[in-house]
Every structure is written in C-alpha cells, then in structure tokens.
Amino acid sequence: MSKKSSRSEQIYWGFRTHTSRYKPQKLLNYLQKRVTQENLADVVSHVRIEKGIKERSRGEYYFYLGIKTNARSDWSSTQNTLKQLIKTVRGISIVRIRREEFCWEEFCWEDIRHMVGIAYELERDTQPIEYFQVKRPPKVNPLGLETPIAEAVGSDRSQPCEQLLWWLSAAGSGSWETFQAVCSHLDLVQPRRLWRRLQLLGHLLAAQDGQHWQMQPPSLQPVSKNCYVLYGQRNASLQESLQQFGRLVEIPQPRRDAPPCWQLELQADAATAIAELRTKYPALAIRPVEAPPPWADWVATLKVVDWVPLHRYRLKRYDGSSFVDVPDAEETGFYELYEEGSQQQHALFYDRQHNAWYSAEWYSLRFLALTHLAPKNLSVSYDPNAQELSIPISQRWPLAYERYLVMQSGCLPRYNRTTEELIYQNIAPTVWQVIGEQLPFFDLEK
C-alpha cells in the first residue's frame, strides 16, 4: 500500500488485532461507546473490518477507522485526542509503512478498498443492525425482473424493510452485491423488486448500470397544509427530532412490502417549526418533488450497449402482451436474450433505425416497446375529485415517471385486482398537468 501524501477530507488509520480479545461485534460496540464518550462522532465516522475474518483461527484481523480531518478546525488537537482514545483499545497495533514509533500512517480509500468490507457507522443511533459476515451473493442482473415468489396472504414485511432502510442510511452507499447480502440477512426475498421500490419512494438512488447505490439525504416534501412526508435517510436522532415538532405517523405501504411512509403533521406555525427543526437537524432539507424529464430527453439518457453477441443467445421479442421466440433481431423492440446452457438472461431494447441496443430497468424497456408498438393503446385515467391516477398494471411506467407519482404521497400504488390497475394517491391537478406535458401519449382532455 502507498502512503497518502497530503491531508484530505477523508483518511483512514489502520490497526491489527493481535489477540482474540476483540471479536468484530465487541470491537464495534467498544469503539462506538468510546467515540460517543469522547464526543468524536463527527470525526471518526465509521470503521471497516477486513474481509473473511471468520477464516482466522486466532481471531486476528485488520480494521480501519474512517476519519474526517476537516470536521473540526484544529486538526492537531483533534489528532492528539484520537491517539489517546486508540491507546485505550488494548491488544491492537498500528499499521505502519515506516517503523518510527511516532509515525501514524494515513491511508486513502484506494489503499484499502480491496481488503475491507462494508462500513459500520459509529454513531450510536445509526447502528440498527449488528455486525454480520457478508456472504458473496450469486451474480445477477439488478436491472432484470424476478419471477414472483408465492408468499403467504397478508405477509407483513414492513419491519424488516424498515431495518433495511436504517442500515442503508447508516452505510450511505454501497454495491448491488452488498444490498443483496443485507436483504438475505433480513430474510427479504426478491431484492431486485425491493431495490426498485426504494427508488420509487425516493429513499435510494441507483447508478445507471444498477451496480451501485447511494442513499438520498433526508428531506421533507409538503403533501398538504402543515403535513410533510420524509424521504431519504432515517435514524433514531432524526426520528426523535421530528417527534418534538409534531405528530409523526407511520403509514404502512399497501402491500406491506416496503418501509412505511413517515408523515409529519406539524402543530401551530409550520414555518417556525420547520426553522427550529432544521436548526436541530441541519442535514434535513425541504425539497419539492422534482418533475420527470420530457419523454425525448429520457429516451436520450438510455445506456447504449456497445456489443451484443447475438450468436450466443436465443431471442424472444415482446409483442405487446408476451414474449415470443424470434430467429433474429430484425425489428425495433424489447428483447429477452437467453444464453444457451446458462441460467443468465438479459433484457435489452433494439433500435433498428440506429442499429443500437439499449439497457434499462425492465419496466422502462417494456413501456418503451409499447410506445413503438401501439402508442394509441396506452391508457391512463384521472379522478380530480379523489385525486387518484390509475394505469393498467401491464403498462407500468418507467421508474423516473412512476417515482414522480409515488412521491406525491410517499406511498406505493394500490392494486385493484378487478380492473388490474395501479392506483396512485394525492395526485393534484397540477401534477396531472405535468404528466401530460412530459408524456406526450396521453390526452389530458379525456
């Protein structure tokens, strides 16, 4: 590893346990306690532990403290306080490149990224899940869609989904594999569907290739007079702050397959309460829901797949209701590609005019295909009195547009089995107007 040459906002101090005194969870608990006691939670942000430590016969392993050097103005004084704290952790030694006793080595993320696992936050109110060994999940495509798994009627997964959201809030960001591993630890099946729900609810932002995620900062969206919905990160400190300024209501999702909606009903003067709340919790933002892009702009953002070896795959093309076998990709449309002798499959859209393949999440590609096959058959209905918008479940919108609908209420759509429609709540006439402008397939006059 190479030593970091200059001080930056985020550095790491490395250590090695050379006794069996500290098992991983005990180490995390101790560090969490000491960091809290010394009031250093803003400086020592997290700890990363060496991968595969359970394979160690004597319990020895490396760990690294994530340190924000710009958290306080006097770094020299803060550094001395940190060193005194470390000296209380018996049975560890400092990872050094040089041998001088007085030298404390500083590492950057690139130095350690290949040898450490996920980050564990050290603030007491952001550690909702205990340490566990992350198992490497099988490689799958996060942009695909899983075959529905039969579940018990009325199965309530609200609590483990809430635990997942708190864990993601503490971690801040990570990989698709890490997301899968945490879902597995919490016995949450079909992680790809949950991945999409968290994006619809405005909590999580995923990279275009679906391989990495990042939590959105906490923000309040007004949904009615003196009533707000919380999006993004959650933790105990924020929960306590919200409860001090109003009534915090947890609204279960329609199928109880995602974290409940947090709705804050402010008492008395909302402006004064919001100002005091932001003073107590500066990271909180008041942010209106951002409108989705115009359709043409959204299509232009689709990721181009450079090369598709069609000779390796069996092709199926979407005909508007199902996928049918085709010998080759001769027409513009939505294709599923099945690799011979393998369980892997891919979902891509082919544009014959430009001879280009595009990737995106499954529902987005299906909707794009419908706009090419029969745009006049696309259907939507709006009830201004109930402020509800309904679309056929077979025509589910791309994530960017469906998220705009979901975030108006903080709740996922209800499903009407009789009409086979998804029903979105709290859709004001102004929101309906925006939809008509951004999606040119619908006649607002009907």
Count of β-strands: 23
Which structural class should the secondary elements be placed in?
Answer: alpha+beta
Strand order of the largest sheet: 14-19-18-17-15-16
How many domains would you count in the coordinates?
4
Low-confidence stretches: 1-7, 125-129, 146-153
Percent of sequence in beta strands: 25-35%
Mean pLDDT: 84
Sheet of most strands: 6 strands, antiparallel
Share of helix among residues?
Answer: 25-40%
Tally of alpha and pi helices: 12
Can you tell me about this structure?
- The chain is an alpha+beta fold.
- The protein has four domains: 10-122, 2-Layer Sandwich (Alpha-Beta Plaits); 157-288, no CATH class; 303-359, no CATH class; 376-438.
- The protein is 27% helix and 25% strand.
- Strands 14-19-18-17-15-16 form a six-stranded antiparallel beta sheet. A five-stranded antiparallel beta sheet has the order 4-1-3-2-5, covered by helices on one side.
- Mean pLDDT is 84; it is low at 1-7, 125-129 and 146-153.
Using brief descriptors, characterize the structure shown.
about 450 residues; alpha+beta; Alpha-Beta Plaits; 4 domains; six-stranded antiparallel beta sheet; five-stranded antiparallel beta sheet; disordered N terminus
Concise summary:
The protein is α+β, with helices and mostly antiparallel strands. It has 12 helices and 23 strands. It has 4 domains: 10-122, ACT domain (Alpha-Beta Plaits, 2-Layer Sandwich), CATH 3.30.70.260; 157-288, no CATH class; 303-359, no CATH class; 376-438.
